[in-house]
Amino acid sequence: MKKIIIIIFVAIAVTGGILFTVGIVKNKQSTVVNAYELTEEYKNITIDVATTDVYFKVSEDGKTKMVAEEAENEKHTVQIIDGVLTITREDNKKWYEKMFDFGSGAKLTLYLPNANDFADLNIKVSTGNVAVEKGFIFDNIVLDGSTGNTDIKAVVKGNIGATASTGDISISETTCKTATIKVSTGKVFLSSVSIDEDLAISSSTGNITLNELTCINLALSVSTGNISLTETVASGKFTASASTGNITFNNFDAETIKITASTGSVRGSIKTDKNFYCTSDTGRVSVPKTDGGLCDIKVSTGDIVLEISK
For 32-87, what is each residue's pLDDT tens digit? Predict the structure, then answer.
């Protein structure tokens, strides 16, 4: 009986090893480069490609084309449907190839004319990265990602909505009307961004870093992660909540400030005078005695040390 069990286990291991090898070899050997050019008119762009990296670049000849590094059995489909540039990814892999598929390294580069003002850009990816370079103008950008990183530098007339699980989200050198960003374990970094109205960012275990940013109302929320604000100004309300993490200001300002934190300190410099109402259950509190907008900070375990930087 034992010999039969051993034989069965060996057979399973050998079969698994063969399928594993075949799957990897097929994935590595089947990658090709294909180019697609489109001449029809479009305003909206929708992309749903799972594990593909997506890059937006300015077209030097003013034409729309897509260059895809893709697997022969997992090619991309690009077409214009009712004025929408639509890109999807076919999946014709065998069952054994899917079992041992660790990503084919597919890459999609979309060349667009920057003379056009585009309407909505909607992107859905799983493990792929997304990068939109400078030079483009969109009405709105909505990105639904998982483990890939996102880098946006395009100008957006309306809203930027970006979500990620373990991937990082970076937005820089741009303007938009509003922005809403949600991550789980990924990091959020915004730099040199001007937002006409409100910005809201929530994170589970990732850090939030804002540098040279302006908006009206700013709302930040983290569970386990640090918040760092440098040369950032909210002309309206600033609200922040943190469970475990520090909040650091460097020449930050807002008309009113309200912060609640559990385990973590609040430190740094604020540009203008405030009426400080700050309490810490177990930490040190050191704030200026000035008159101005409300600064209400409540900390359970941690210090509150602030100064006016003017």
Answer: 999 999 999 999 999 999 889 999 999 999 999 999 998 887 889 999 999 999 99
Q: Distance (Å, rounded) from C-alpha 79 to C-alpha 241? A: 45
Q: Retrieve residue 214's tokens.
A: 């302006």
Model confidence at 104, in pLDDT bands (50, 70, 90)?
A: low
Structure tokens at 268: 């740094």
What pLDDT, in 10s, does the model give residues 254-291?
Answer: 999 999 999 999 999 999 999 999 999 999 999 999 99
| pTM value surpassing 0.90 | no
Q: Are 227 and 208 in contact (CB under 8 A)?
A: yes
CA 92 to chain centre: 29
- Cα–Cα dist 286/266, whole Å: 10
Distance CA 23, CA 16 (A): 10
13 CB-contact burial (10 Å; exposed 0-12 / middle 13-18 / buried 19+): exposed
Question: Which sequence spans correspond to the domains of the chain?
Answer: 1-157, 179-310
CA-to-CA distance for 247 and 124, rounded, in angstroms? 32
170 CB-side CA count, 13 A: 14
The pair of structure tokens assigned to 238 is: 């600033």
User: Chain-centre distance of CA 279, in angstroms?
Assistant: 34
Question: pLDDT averaged over the chain?
Answer: 89
Residue 255 and residue 274: Cα distance in Å, rounded?
9
Of the CA atoms within 13 Å of residue 25, those in its CB half-sphere come to 6
Which residue has 């704030």 as its token pair?
287
pLDDT at 3: 59
Q: Select from 14, 67, 43, 187 the least CA-distant residue to 120.
A: 43
